[in-house]
Amino acid sequence: MKKVALILDHPSRDLDYISDIALSISESGIKTYIVPSNMRHRELLLLRPDYVLYTNHRDTSANEIRILNEVGVSIGVLETEQCVTDAFFEKYQIPKNIQTLKTDISDFFVWGEYFSNLCISKNWYDQNQIKIAGSPKHDRYFSQKNSSTPKEYDILIATSFQNSNPLSGHEVSRKTYQDLGMNDTEIDIFNQLHVDNVQNTIDFINNELSNTDLKILLRVHPFEDNYQLYKNKIKSKNVVIENSNHTIISSLNKAKILIHFNSSACIDAQACDVPSINMSWMPHLEVFHDSSEIMTSVSYQPKSTNECIQLIDDIISKKFKLKIENDSEEMKKFIFKFDGFSSKRCADLIASSVFSDYIELNLDIKQNIFIKKYNPRSFLVSLILKYRWKRTKKYFTKVDIKKSLVKNFPSVKLTNPKRVGMNLTSVELL
Question: What homologous superfamily does CATH list for 140-334?
Fold first, then answer.
């Protein structure tokens, strides 16, 4: 029986759509596993998959992807970062050895023609590798958006300054960006931009929005440890501050307008039919933090706070709506069929790829990344890694996946597969 493993990295970002893709693949008659990113080196080869779907292809994963490719495992990449500029993507979001993009990847899933054309023109991927499926990440937004309920807030401000971290310090994210290829100077500049724009956001709220008739919800980014800072510096009664212990859609359903800073949240808002405004007057860095073409297309781009206030008034008074419509040709250029069915299209393409040919796995290759069988040492290492993983926001269980799927698929059955007599952390769809 064919086997597919899907890597799940950030549950708050990826769990719903990875679960949807996994269920559709399973219904095709393929044994399907959801594998925690933190545990993949301990469990992936124990599951012996024919195909592995990664959420990205970076220098940090290039070596393991090469090994999987060498042992006969087909690799798909469902790139989650398709809102960034091409300069940022080329410099930090792909391996430095770009030849590995063509040699190690079977399927590269993109949202639409724009990113497809970019990949081909930059010579990153070949036409036969690129699979246009839409954006699985946004599927649930179409079924969960609530346009009939009266909006509780006029404005949702979604922050995106996770590199400004007054509680833990910048060193928390430094290694992550070093792994992407940033040097220390670039990281310092990047972090300082976030620190400055946290204060700029606070100043904008205090000087322009506080103590007005506007009802405002400030949603702190899931990986931004600034909740207490905002609480201490924003005292207005018309501003509610929330920690994001849930996906942004629940906040978008409460608001008439989204305000953000060069954030992919504008695509979330677009899926929910919520107009978005970019705080485009604030300082940015051309490579690191510029507004990409898709962001510029879907979000209004005021050049000053005064222009932003006028836009807010015009949208609330219904003079302006969405900057572009979801079914417009301009939107289709970026996201093919922005309709809520991208997960099914992605699953069908994976199933087609898996069934297209038979490659015998050769798991005896010598390497030091994956384990192929448990011994006392690897068992101990796995326990340590699991303990560390459980203490992060990346932790999830089969119960979380069950909760994600049970509303639409109440009969779904899941288990933790056993290997060498012990339960793995990966989740199998039965």
Answer: Glycogen Phosphorylase B; (3.40.50.2000)
